[in-house]
Amino acid sequence: MAIASLWREPERREQPSFGALEFHDVFKIYRSGPVETVALRGLDLRVEPREFVAVFGPSGSGKSTMLHLAAGLDEPSAGDVRVFGRSLALLDENELAAFRAREAAIVFQTGNLWPGLSVRENVDLALRLARGKRVDNRVERALDVFGLSRRERTRAGALSGGEQQRVAIAAAAARESPLVLADEPTAELDERNERIVLEALARLRSQFGSTVVVVTHSPRVADAVDRVIELRDGRAA
What strands, in cross-sheet order, belong to the sheet with 35-47? Predict the structure, then answer.
């Protein structure tokens, strides 16, 4: 069956008054004894629904801190982080766990998969953890769209780095995550595999309606995204 018959372009709706991801005057300060490190200094940014955005900046500019706050893995020292209009500060630990399982998929540089499980089992388990059960034929569709059907029985630990990233992206697609946050997802890949992974991330936006935010050092990513956000000294440049 052709991919086009499986997936339909999400309906275009009026632009909402809130962004998919918003930072309002956000500070993040790390303390180690008497020493303070200011990672974010009043960061303001907004990512629109269905945007594909790359966040660039030198080491220490606050990129990874920004992503961790967006995923609810850490709390700001001051300011507000909102996802689809909802302040993460209002969520308790259980609600944050549900938020990460259902609404904000995170694709790290490595370590996204259970290496002893097959490709199919990884995608299926991600969906079960998010929804409590399998839903329709989302696993089969995700594997098909991302070209993984022939590798579905392969143990994840035996895959190449690029294939592992595609499995992690397929898991986000099966969960229908509205926000996908990727932290240096192509850092250890050659140029060919980087292109394949970027195409897969773009497909999350175009075919699944996800908002995709990629933290990266790679200049090639800029050619694949809608917009580039540059961070310097904890602020949007």
Answer: 35-47, 21-32, 78-83, 86-87
Say whether pTM exceeds 0.70: yes
Residues 123, 128, 133, 136, Cα dihedral to 10°: -30
- Pairing between β-strand 235-236 and β-strand 78-83 as defined by DSSP bridges: unpaired
Tens-digit pLDDT profile for residues 9-63: 555 555 558 899 999 999 999 998 889 999 999 999 999 999 999 999 988 899 9
Whether the CB-CB separation of 164 and 113 falls below 8 Å is answered with yes
Residue whose pair of structure tokens reads 């944050």 in the numeric block: 96
Considering only CA atoms, which of 53, 60, 162 is closest in space to residue 113? 162
Distance CA 226, CA 139 (A): 28
56 Cβ contact partners less than 8 Å away, ≥ 6 residues apart = 63, 216, 217, 222, 228, 229, 230, 231
**Cβ–Cβ under 8 Å, residues 51 and 211:** yes
Task: Tell me the C-alpha distance between 79 and 81, whole Å.
Answer: 7
Query: Six-digit token pair at 102?
Result: 């259902």
User: In this structure, are residues 214 and 55 in contact, taking their beta carbons and an 8 Å threshold?
Assistant: yes
